Amino acid sequence: MSEGQRLFVGGEWTEPDGGHYPVTDPATEGTVGWAPEASPEQVRAACAAAREAFGPWSRTRPEERAAVLARAAGVIRDSLEPYADLARAETGATAGTARAMQVGVAAARFRRYAAVEPAEWAVLPQINEAGPMGGAAVMGALAVRQPVGVVTCVTSYNNPWANPAGKVAPALAMGNTVVVKPAPQDPLSVYRMAEALEAAGVPPGVVNVVSGRDTAVGEAAVACDDVDMVSFTGSTSVGRRIAEVCGRDMKRQLMELGGKGAALVFDDADLGSAVAGIGTTFSFYSGQICTAPTRVLAQRGVYDRLVERLAGYAARLKVGDPGEPDTVVGPVISAEHRSRVESYVELGRKEGAVVVTGGERPPLARGFYVAPTLLADCGNDMRVAREEIFGPVVVVIPFDDEEEGVALANDSDYGLVDYVWSGDVARAFRVARRLRAGGVGVNTVGRNMEAPFGGFKRSGVGRDVGVYALHAYSEVQALVWPG
């Protein structure tokens, strides 16, 4: 594969019809490798291969499917360092993030779904009186999870390991087959995942990977008649388009879309905890993460101190080569995205926001770097407060009391993950239950990886993670009989 990565279709490594395109290292602007450009016909061939493999794979014993996932987790763990090196080069993530949060999480997700769980539940018997449908009877019932069929998995660029693993592992565990369409910016890691699954013994056609920069590649993977479900992580605008296509054919959808996470910080909050949690926005994936608390709502009694401490936190972060052990903030994914983030900072200035720290391009010779930026004195009607910037930029908005804070937090098109910091735990949980978001962190930005994950409003459709992912990639069938 020295001349370029090949597609993975029907268990075969296939030369792409559209040739190859360069994958760029965001830190050096050099070429990491050459990704394949599939044709729509090759995408449809991948979907057909998945359809052909679905019958045998769905009838395979769950224990056998689980064993394949367990072996894949082992292959990934054994190759953690080279896989992490590639992920770092493709995404610009720091070395520690690439190891632990990208490749490490992917291995953990395959391991998680290697555990066989019950797929059927008894339903309480029902007594039916005699009527047009027959005599009186006691009716028993069983609810059974069945695989959906062929699942197209369209994955995001910010984590080319954990994101596809979070789709592929539960989908395979449930007996589905998959066609993975990775983000065009960093698809090479997803092909390494396919190699790991191949080494683990996944049968031909059960997993297919097709990539390309042309939008026709993604459209073919979504619209193909062989596809029963689409699982997508990405922008709300693209999610809308996918939903339209799925709606025409009544295809199942799982959508994890944009976010503009509100972080409510009350006067009695532990500021150290709040600053550390919110500060991850500046550093983790360089702010390219939909769960980031990018919209800080600070009660007036703590507003000035919070702004000061967040500015100090951001100013201390080392921006630079993600391969260096002390680097905290790496580059964003591309020159185009850097320009987009910078344009939002300039827009914030024009809207009246105060740039407390950042706002200038770091003085580095190469790489797509953006300085961690804090915008204060913002209003919730500003575009920088309403639109997803997807970079190391935090906006701060003041509020007076609990009612106003909740109203501001809910005044958003998004509702993925919000946060509450308060020393009054009862108030924190009371406020959390009033927030229109799929998840709420109470005095933390940490995650429970068995808790359901997904968004309200324009942040998505459906829930996954833990057992909820098994529900997401299954249909529920009712079996009914006379008792």
From TrEMBL:
SUPFAM superfamilies per record: ALDH-like (SSF53720)
Pfam families: Aldedh
Domain of life: Bacteria
Protein name stated in the entry: Aldehyde dehydrogenase family protein
PANTHER family xref list: ALDEHYDE DEHYDROGENASE-RELATED
Domain Aldehyde dehydrogenase stretches: 13-478
Region Disordered, residue ranges: 1-22
Keywords for this protein: Oxidoreductase
